[in-house]
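Dear colleague,

Thank you for sharing your sequence with our group. We've completed the structure prediction you requested, and as agreed, I am returning the results in plain text so they can be pasted directly into your records. Please verify that the sequence below matches your submission; if there's any discrepancy, let me know and we will rerun it promptly.
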Amino acid sequence: MNRTQGLRLYLWSALLLACSVVHATSQAVGEVSLAVGTSRLHGSNGVVTPVRGVPVHVGDRIDTGDGGHVHIRFVDGAFVSVRPGSRLLVESYFVDKDLPANNAIKFRLEEGVARSISGRATEAARDRFRLNTPIAAIGVRGTDFVTLAEKNRVAVTVNSGEVVLARLGAACAAEAYGPCVNGQSLTYGRDRSGEMLELRRDQNSPRVVPLSGARTPDQVAPSRSEEPKAAAAEAKGDAETETLLSRLASTVPSPADRPRALVWGRWSWAQQLPFDQLTVPVAEAREGRHVTVGSSYYALFREGSRPETPLPTSHGEVQFVLRDAQVHYSKAGTVQPAAVNGGWLRIDFGKREFSTGLTLHNILTGQSAFTVAGSVRDDGIFAVNQSDTQLAGAVTFDSKEAGYFFEKSAGGGTFSGVTRWGR
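Please find the predicted structure tokens below.
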């Protein structure tokens, strides 16, 4: 056994004894169910083009251009449609299953049109949902509504339930949650058909205006057929809400339900780590997959066997998004939890090259940068073995997933972990 193999064996052994799993980013609160036209998702890992299945996190911002539509299904069954020419920020999405009163959901529609259908978290804590626009705050009463946010105007139409519209200011702070109910707010329900709510910057209070002749949200940015149909003219209670949520939930499989082409497996002698959400037993990982790279305790299994022809070069350069990671820091016989605070991975299939970087953090070392580049084999496997850095991974044959394990020397110790990437 050479020095590198011995170090790897020691590190992975230590990982089994004392290590915590730390997500690369905050836990996903939803995922993209539809993306058409021009759109961008701005997150902690940079800017990516959203596609179906891409996770959405707190702090992410969705921008859409002409013809761009992005649909998001959240963990509690809620649904949001970001229509063309819009910018929506997910400011908060906290769901407390044990104490639903602590739920806290907040969006900021900076411009454009968005449709929101409340989920279970809002149903359980209706005073903890807020959608802010540049001039107004919108609270709900279990609602399906569409909002148009412009620099000097906000307009809201309601498909079911009720909304509360209020001007932002001293009596309605943007930092707060829930409806702002005061002398200048206005509550509006779906029973008033043919009308909508409107607030202009030069007005103190919202007003109800007729749809006829008005600049409505649906006129500015019409919906696509993939959006859920609006509920009946009046809400029919919890049973109807559950039916709507069930229909939304059935449109997009959850991340756990979707089969993965790349899976981290742990050998039979390796016990599952606390909070480990990356690895499964090898017997499960190898179902329909073959091993690519690994250590004495973990192995990366890939769907299918090596094809007769090499990876195509037509994919060009692909930018991957860091989905999750687990990492620890080992020094002088002690193991400390560590974190991945962001990262990037680029693979140029034409040149058969890759480059990647991670921002690692530990209480003993502070922040440490990990960057490495190298070549990719025709079968999609890549590896680098340097004096202070080791990495080995694989990419799927359709170029949609990648994963690697790594070691990085820093501060007299070593970071060690595994990653999973997607597009």
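Summary note from our side: The radius of gyration is 24 Å.

Kind regards,
the structure core
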